[in-house]
Design a protein that fits this description.
With about 110 residues, the chain is of the alpha+beta class. The protein contains three helices and five strands; from the N terminus they run H-E-E-H-E-E-E-H. About 35% of the residues lie in helices and about 20% in strands.
Length: about 110
Amino acid sequence: MNDDQIKFETAKLAEEKGFLFEYIGTVLVNIPTQYELQTWLRKNHNCIVEVLYNTSEYPNQLKFFSTVNYFGKELQIILTNYDDFNSDSYVKYEDALEIGLLEALKLI
């Protein structure tokens, strides 16, 4: 598995939520990337997943965390200054993005 491919747990939930996977028979052709899922969430569900960096808690060390903002399929949710989800900090950007994608799928 490449770093940018989504993990099994995320893929399983994404499929349950309507993300289309490419199969030949019963064999999954390829595992979607985090970017593909992030784009699908934004375009189809108005759900924004961002990864930001945090240096204030960890001086001299770059850490990443994700935020999720879900505005509803028809933008029916009122905009606020609050995120729907904020992750813990991670050393790897991809780890922060993965948890953000998983939590975004739980919101839709």
